[in-house]
Amino acid sequence: MSAGNTITLDGRPALQFERHLKHSREKVWLAVTDPEHLSHWYPLRVTELEPRAGGRIMFDDGEGTIYTATITRFDPPRLFAFDEHDPEGREREYDDHLRIELHDEGAGCRLVFTHVMTDPSIADGVFKGWTACLDALVTQLDTTE
Question: Alpha carbon of 126 to those of 25, 103, 119, 140: distances in Å?
């Protein structure tokens, strides 16, 4: 079951989702940080991920646009956060910030997914998109060893 809320983080609007997962933090950590696994549920294919704070992530939208991100927190298996930048040639005041926290909870873990948005006017569409992505993450976790 997914719960999503609109919150304010560092003075910026954000969407936050929480899900209880029946899997260990270690298994979920692999699904959210390994490029192959991440590409199965994230909206963009991951072509590169340097697993460290300050590392770079490269995303391919499959339509010729490459997006880059900078990892801001990498604390296995608890916290993964990054700032997603616009492609070259496009500028915006802030980067989107994504944060994935994993907490032990019962026999599994609780995932807290936060998206601090550059443009809050798109929150409804973003909410639906992340709900579908997190559903895909759960399916991936339930169908892999």
Answer: 25, 24, 10, 21
What domains lie within the chain, and their CATH numbers?
3-143 (3.30.530.20)
- DSSP letters, 40-66, are HHSSSEEEEE--STT-EEEEE-SSS-E
- Name 43's Cβ contacts closer than 8 Å, sequence gap at least 6: 129, 133
Task: In whole angstroms, give the CA distance from residue 92 to residue 140.
Answer: 33
**How far apart are the C-alpha atoms of 137 and 55, rounded to whole Å?**
23
What's this model's pTM, rounded to 2 decimal places? 0.91
**Cis-peptide, bond into residue 43, ω within 30° of zero:** no
From the first residue on, what is the mean pLDDT of each consecutive set of 10 residues in the chain (145 residues)?
74 93 97 97 96 97 92 98 83 82 97 91 88 96 89
